[in-house]
Design brief:
The chain is of the alpha/beta class. It is built from seven helices and nine strands, in the order βααβαβαβββαβααββ. It has a single domain, classed as Vaccinia Virus protein VP39 (Rossmann fold), CATH 3.40.50. The chain starts with a strand and ends in a 5-residue tail after the last strand. Bound molecules: S-adenosylmethionine.
Length: 234
C-alpha cells in the first residue's frame, strides 16, 4: 500500500485517538444497539469475499465479526488513528483464534492512500466504510472512489453505512438536529472540520458503482447500503 504526503482541502487529519477507548460506550449511550444493527445488517453478503479493504475501521467491532463470519478472508484495515487501530488489533486477537493473522493494519490518512495492486491478483472484492464517508468532503470521496476503482476486482462490493437525512416528514428536522450536533461534537473532539453529510452516492455513481441494496433504520436517520462495481465506468 502506498501513502502520499498529506493531501487536502486545507483540512488537517482528524484525530480520533482520544475517543478510541470510549467510542463504543459513547455510541451505545447515544444510539443503543442501532449503529451495530446497521453495520452488521449486510454481513451475510460478505461471507464469500476473499480480500477486504476496510476504511476508517475504528475499534474493529465490524472486522472481528467479519473475520468470524468468513474464515477465508484477508483484511487490510486503514485508519488515521493509532489508538483505534490498537483497539482493533486487541479485539481481533482476543477472539482466541488465528484471526489476527488475517488482518493487516495501516495507519494512514485515507486522502493520501492508494492500495497497491498485487501481481496476478484481481484486487479487493470487498470495501467497507461504516460511518466513515461522513468524515470526508464530496471532493475527497470523489477522489477516493476514483483511486479505489482501479484496485478492485470486477463486481467488487462496497458496503457503506452512514447517517442520512430523510427527504420529508417530521423526522427530517430531528435528523438535521442530530447530525448537526454530532458534527459539532466530533469537530470539538477530533478537529473533523466537516459540517454536513456528503453526497457519496453521486460520487460513487460517477465512478462506476451502483447501489444494489439498501436498508434504513430509525426512520431513515441510519442507512446501510451495498454498492457494486460496474464493469465499465459510465
Ligand atoms: C466515526 S468513526 C467510525 C468508525 C467505525 N468505522 C464505525 O463503524 O464506528 C471514523 C473513523 O474513521 C477514521 N478517520 C476519519 N477520518 C479519516 C481519514 N481522513 N483517514 C483515515 N481515517 C480517518 C477515524 O480515525 C475513525 O476511526
Amino acid at each position: 500500500m502506498r501513502t502520499r504526503p498529506a493531501p487536502n482541502e486545507n483540512r488537517p487529519t482528524p484525530n480520533f485517538d482520544r475517543l478510541a477507548r470510549l467510542y463504543r460506550w459513547l455510541e451505545y449511550a447515544s444510539f443503543g444497539p442501532m449503529l451495530e444493527r446497521c453495520r452488521f445488517y449486510f454481513l451475510p453478503a460478505c461471507a464469500t469475499a476473499r480480500r477486504a479493504l476496510i476504511l476508517g475501521d475504528g475499534d474493529g467491532r465490524f472486522t472481528q465479526r467479519l473475520l468470524q463470519a468468513n474464515p477465508f478472508l484477508e483484511v487490510d484495515a486503514v485508519d488515521a488513528s493509532a489508538q483505534m487501530l490498537q483497539q482493533l488489533r486487541q479485539r481481533v486477537a482476543s477472539s482466541g483464534t488465528d484471526d489476527a493473522l488475517r488482518v493487516h493494519t495501516l495507519r494512514a490518512d485515507i486522502r493520501a492512500f492508494t492500495p497497491e495492486r498485487r501481481d496476478n491478483d484481481p484486487g479487493y472484492d470487498l470495501v467497507v466504510s461504516h460511518f466513515f464517508l461522513d468524515c470526508l468532503t464530496p471532493n475527497e470521496i470523489d477522489a477516493l472512489a476514483d483511486r479505489l476503482r482501479e484496485c478492485l476486482a470486477p463486481d467488487a462490493l462496497w458496503l457503506i453505512s452512514d447517517f442520512a437525512i430523510p427527504q420529508r416528514g417530521w423526522l427530517r428536522p430531528v435528523a438535521q438536529l442530530v447530525v448537526r450536533s454530532l458534527y459539532f461534537a466530533f469537530d470539538c473532539l477530533t478537529r473533523l472540520r466537516i459540517k454536513k453529510l456528503p453526497d457519496y452516492a453521486g460520487a460513487l455513481e460517477q465512478h462506476g458503482f451502483f447501489q444494489v441494496q439498501q436498508k434504513t433504520f430509525l426512520g431513515g436517520l441510519l442507512t446501510t447500503e451495498l454498492w457494486q462495481k460496474q464493469s465499465s465506468k459510465p
